[in-house]
């Protein structure tokens, strides 16, 4: 979805990034005694880093993050159990990494990526003392669909050298971009193979070299191959970090590219045009062109690619009279890198979903979006046939996370006016149980009045 264009103060930006803390990458690691500590937190008995955690080469002295040497041992993966409603084909996991009431998740764009046939889930574990208070620490976690933690990086947030940022799974490696309260004029960037967490190291890159001015930082990121596509602020734009050449490429001919929300593809990245509300294609060498323009007065406000179907492009168009989107439609096109060879097709009209800005996930020929706070929508790209999935009583859906031939994943939170969008759980619905409902729904859009309730 489109970002808020409000200019962030440097203090607010650092605070927000520290509240998201993510991971760096590397070469050789120090011993456990080298890992930084937060004395006040430990004196209070709060220790979210049990086991063996080590410092990250290139992070010190400005970044306080540490990484688990053996994440599979010291950071247990999520535990999925039958949903409280007992509905068929439904399992959920709750944020319970602290005994206090404040455990929450944080998910970024494209939270699941497939590497060598295995889906990897990326998220952050937040540790506030209450659900609506700042987190005291954050741990960024990557785990397999099968429940094996392969990487964990975190930090206390009260330190003057607290780091925040992004940990992004690519085609075979993990990339990271961090910024520290102690050095807000630099981004810390690095990469490491998946499954080798302690090979991480970081390189400090001046913000100016990434196309931003004072107060700017990476706000969204996508990774594929040797390229790390960075959605920058101050001003909004996409910058490429080339790991092979160890250099930044700032698309700026004929002007600085006005873009955000990069989605990496085989030849470069797609990104939203935040001036004229279309989609850019940006090559891996930095050239760019307009790929999609919205129909009529509408705006394109979100996009994804179906990586299981040759990077088929998917996007949402709609009106935005206020915060929510109306008259929303789902579009798709086979992968292309220029408008002349793009063949767009409107798949379905989604109507007036109040939560259309909650994200879009595409995979295996279907698209997952939010419809209302209590329902999500699964749409088949081949014919536009759609079905709604209802949240359990007392729960709301916050963000679509993943869909494949086996399951549908969404993040959840308490359905209370005061809970905002705090993500306290993940729910996984079996596609098999969803499939048993399809025959009863019948064809076309008229079938959308039926929800998937527990049997």
Description:
By secondary structure, this protein is mainly beta. It has a domain at 294-455. It has four helices and 33 strands. Strands 1, 2, 5, 6, 7, 8 and 9 form a seven-stranded antiparallel β-sheet that branches. A hairpin with a 3-residue loop joins strand 30 (395-403) and strand 31. Mean pLDDT is 84; it is low at 3-35 and 435-455.
Write the layout of secondary structure elements.
Blueprint lengths: L9 H9 L20 H5 L9 E3 L10 E3 L2 H4 L6 E2 L7 E5 L9 E3 L5 E4 L2 E9 L10 E8 L4 E8 L6 E7 L3 E8 L2 E11 L9 E4 L11 E7 L2 E6 L4 E6 L4 E3 L9 E7 L2 E6 L5 E5 L4 E5 L6 E8 L5 E8 L6 E8 L11 E7 L8 E4 L2 E7 L2 E6 L5 E5 L4 E9 L3 E8 L10 E6 H11 L9 E2 L3
Q: What attributes characterize this protein structure?
A:
455 residues; mainly beta; seven-stranded antiparallel β-sheet; five-stranded antiparallel β-sheet; 4 helices; 33 strands; 6% helix; disordered N terminus; disordered C terminus
Strand percentage: 35-45%
Number of strands: 33
> Which of globular, elongated, flat, extended, rod-shaped describes the shape?
globular
* Overall average pLDDT: 84
Alpha-beta content class: mainly beta
The Rg value, from CA coordinates, equals: 21 Å
Helicity range = under 10%
């Amino acid at each position: 979805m489109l970002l808020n264009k409000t200019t962030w103060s440097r203090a607010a930006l650092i605070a927000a990034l520290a509240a998201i803390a993510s991971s760096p990458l590397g070469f050789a690691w120090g011993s456990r005694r080298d890992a930084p500590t937060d004395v006040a937190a430990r004196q209070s008995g709060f220790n979210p880093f049990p086991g063996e955690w080590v410092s990250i080469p290139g992070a010190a002295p400005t970044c306080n993050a540490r990484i688990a040497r053996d994440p599979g041992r010291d950071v247990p993966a999520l535990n999925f159990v039958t949903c409280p409603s007992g509905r068929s084909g439904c399992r959920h996991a709750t944020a319970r990494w602290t005994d206090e009431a404040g455990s929450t998740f944080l998910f970024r764009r494209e939270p699941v990526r497939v590497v060598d046939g295995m889906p990897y889930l990326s998220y952050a574990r937040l540790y506030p003392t209450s659900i609506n208070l700042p987190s005291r620490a954050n741990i960024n976690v990557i785990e397999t669909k099968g429940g094996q933690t392969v990487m964990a990086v975190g930090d206390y947030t009260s330190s003057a050298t607290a780091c925040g940022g992004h940990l992004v799974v690519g085609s075979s490696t993990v990339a990271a971009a961090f910024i520290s309260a102690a050095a807000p004029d630099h981004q810390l960037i690095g990469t490491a193979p998946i499954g080798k967490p302690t090979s991480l190291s970081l390189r400090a890159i001046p913000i100016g070299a990434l196309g931003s001015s004072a107060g700017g930082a990476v706000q969204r990121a996508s990774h594929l191959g040797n390229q790390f596509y960075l959605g920058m602020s101050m001003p909004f734009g996409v910058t490429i970090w080339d790991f092979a050449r160890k250099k930044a490429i700032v698309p700026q001919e004929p002007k600085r590219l006005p873009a955000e929300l990069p989605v990496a593809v085989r030849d470069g990245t797609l990104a939203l045009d935040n001036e004229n509300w279309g989609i850019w294609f940006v090559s891996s060498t930095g050239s760019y062109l307009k790929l999609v323009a919205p129909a009529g007065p509408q705006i394109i406000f979100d996009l994804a690619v179906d990586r299981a179907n040759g990077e088929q492009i998917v996007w949402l168009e709609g009106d935005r009279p206020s915060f929510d989107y109306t008259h929303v439609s789902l579009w798709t096109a086979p992968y292309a890198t220029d408008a002349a060879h793009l063949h767009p097709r409107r798949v379905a009209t989604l109507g007036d979903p109040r939560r259309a800005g909650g994200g879009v996930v595409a995979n295996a020929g279907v698209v997952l979006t939010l419809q209302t706070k209590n329902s999500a929508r699964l749409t088949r790209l081949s014919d536009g046939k759609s079905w709604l999935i209802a949240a359990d009583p007392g729960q709301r859906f916050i963000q679509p996370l993943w869909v494949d031939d086996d399951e549908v994943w969404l993040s959840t939170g308490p359905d209370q006016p005061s809970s905002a969008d705090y993500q306290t759980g993940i729910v996984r619905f079996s596609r098999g149980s969803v499939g048993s409902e399809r025959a009863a729904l019948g064809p076309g859009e008229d079938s959308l009045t039926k929800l998937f309730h527990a049997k």
